[in-house]
Amino acid sequence: MKTADDYQAGQVLLIDKPLTWTSFQVVNKLRWEIRQAFNIKKIKVGHAGTLDPLATGLLVICTGKMTKQIDTFQGQIKEYTGTFVLGGTTPSYDLESEVNETFETSHITEDLIYGTTAQFIGDIEQFPPIFSALKKDGKRLYEYARAGETVEIKSRKINVSEFEITKIDDLNIDFRIVCSKGTYIRSLAHDFGKALQSGAHLSVLRRTKIGDFNVNDGDSIEGFIASLKV
Description:
alpha+beta
C-alpha cells in the first residue's frame, strides 16, 4: 500500500478517464482523494496530456516530484481509436455541437476510404479546431467560438505514423491512429471528410497509449479511490 510519502516523492498513475469528465476534473478529484486519505494539506498533481470531455481512455497522472516529468510524457507518441461519421460536419468537429452541414456520400466506396488514409500519414499541416483550449491573445479558442467571433487560427505541423481503418459500417468508420503530440483527432476527422469530397465528424474517441503506457494497465477513478482505502 502506498503512503503519503510515496505520493509526495512522486507516482505515475494510469487512469482510464470516463466519458464527460474533463481532464482537470480528474486531477482535482484524485488530488482531493489523496489529501483526504492521508490527511495532508498540499500535494502536486497534474496530467500529461488533455483529453476532451467526450473522449475516454488513458490519462497519465503525476503526483509530487514526478510532476517534473509531465513535459517528457506529453511529448511521447499517442495511440487513439474511435469512429468518424461521414456525411456531416459540426462546428466543434465532434458531438459537442450539432451537425450544421450535410454532404453527399453516394460516391464514397470502401476502396476510396482505405486509399484516402495515405494522404494523412507522415508530416502534415493541421488546423486545430476553433472549439479547443488553445490560447490566442490570452483567450481560449472555444471562448471565441462560443461568442460567435471569427478568429484566425494558424496551422501546425504534426506527424501521423499509423492510420488504420479497422471497420466500415455504412457511414461509421472505425479507426486506429498513432500520432505525435499536438494532434487533434477531431481535425483529422474533419479533414478526412474533405478529402473524400464530403464531410465528417468525430463521434467516438478513446486514447489507448501514451509512449509505453497502455490504457489496459490503467485504473478507473473508483478503482484508484478504493486502493487508497485498503
